[in-house]
Design a protein that fits this description.
By secondary structure, this protein is α/β, with parallel strands linked by helices. The chain has helices at about 15-25, 30-40, 45-55, 60-70, 85-90, 120-130, 145-155, 175-180, 195-205, 240-250, 270-285, 340-345, and strands at about 75, 80, 165, 185-190, 210-215, 230-235, 260-265, 290-300, 325-335. The chain has 2 domains: about 15-90, Arc Repressor Mutant, subunit A; about 115-345, Rossmann fold. The protein contains 12 helices and 9 strands. The strands form 2 sheets. The chain has a 7-stranded mixed sheet, sandwiched between helices. A two-stranded antiparallel sheet has the order 1-2.
């Protein structure tokens, strides 16, 4: 519980502080980004919850906390909090505690999953057969997020009777798609040859309408898959650069205008300037329109490991996270008239 009683007025130039943080983080950061962290600190003392509420990359939030602490505006230990001076500055700038107002029934997706629940038992058996039902990982979506993705594709007209191409699939989204019985074809391109073979074997035994092929991440699409699909799904929530590469590679597999391209991006991992870079690259690559952006629609089993993303020995990162807070936005693009997969194939 935070003490919001009046305190002496604090005078700190947040614009100058933002420039110092940006120099350390190597990213454009504004005073508004600092305010988002401060508003989150008015509601939470767990670092991972602050990251989720601030909706900014973990490394950026950590640098912000370190600089706020240097200005005696925040306390940084296993728990994090604003000091009385930091709280006073927050109220002075009109900040209010950050709250979530997500629907408890659909988790903010706006989708009903009941029709797709029948898929879950068989999907879980496939996961167990592959030995992937053990400890949660930062790569895997929660079961509800997998079903939510299937429901999203169905709702947007990207599933029923369609051929779907999936690039990378740690969460077995391709299995759920095939088990739904809605698409006429599902093809998964898997980078790990051993996993590709194991999944193909399970798919054969389960008589799933799923084709699995091994394909290294830097290999172009096989000729027989180019121009063959109506829907492209990135099964792995990568960074902006990885997503850009995978989308650009996968576009050559689409049939033409009116096709859907779906993937996830997490602000806890990918800062908004990198989002803009990805959007710019895609628009320069092909005629596309962004039709959907569902924030926090994809819930992961646990948050990514902090190593490499946070300052060394950053104590707040060692606190246990408050449940499965790590989520990604779900984005859908649609190819427009003028989209020509043969041109993309020529440069892939």
């Amino acid at each position: 519980m935070h003490d919001h009683s009046p305190a002496p007025q604090a005078h700190v130039d947040l614009d100058a502080l933002a420039r110092r943080i940006a120099a350390r983080a190597g990213l454009p950061i504004a005073a508004a980004d600092i305010e988002r962290v401060m508003a989150a600190l008015l509601s939470a003392s767990n670092f991972w919850e602050v990251v989720a509420l601030a909706d900014r990359p973990a490394g950026q939030v950590a640098e912000t906390l370190i600089h706020l602490a240097a200005e005696e505006l925040a306390q940084v230990g296993e728990a994090v909090a604003l000091t009385p001076a930091g709280t006073a500055l927050g109220w002075q700038r009109g900040l209010v505690p950050r709250k979530r107002f997500r629907c408890p029934h659909c988790a903010g997706r706006g989708l009903a999953l009941e029709v797709f629940r029948r898929v879950q038992p068989r999907w879980e058996r496939v996961r167990a057969a592959l030995g992937e039902d053990g400890a949660p990982t930062a790569e895997r979506l929660s079961p509800d997020a997998v079903l939510g993705l299937v429901a999203f594709l169905a709702d947007r007209g990207d599933l029923m009777g369609k051929a779907v191409l999936v690039l990378g699939d740690p969460s077995l989204v391709s299995v759920a798609l095939a088990l739904s019985g809605f698409p006429r074809r599902v093809v998964l391109l898997e980078e790990d040859p051993g996993r590709a073979q194991a999944l193909a074997d399970v798919a054969g035994r389960q008589r799933m309408a799923l084709e699995v092929r091994g394909l290294a991440g830097d290999e172009p699409l096989p000729t027989d898959l180019r121009g063959a699909f109506s829907t492209l799904v990135l099964g792995r929530n990568g960074g902006a650069e990885e997503n850009a590469h995978q989308v650009q590679r996968g576009l050559a597999g689409l049939r033409g205008p009116g096709c859907g391209v779906v993937y996830g991006l997490a602000t806890a991992r990918v800062p908004l300037p990198r989002w803009a870079d990805l959007e710019r690259q895609l628009l320069e690559r092909a005629p596309l329109a962004l039709t959907d952006l569902l924030r926090d629609a994809l819930e992961y089993e646990r948050h990514p490991e902090p190593a490499g993303a946070l300052p060394p020995d950053f104590a707040p990162a060692h606190a246990s996270s408050p449940g499965a807070w790590y989520r990604a936005a779900l984005l859908r693009w649609e190819t427009l008239p003028g989209f020509d997969p043969t041109v993309l194939s020529a440069v892939n």
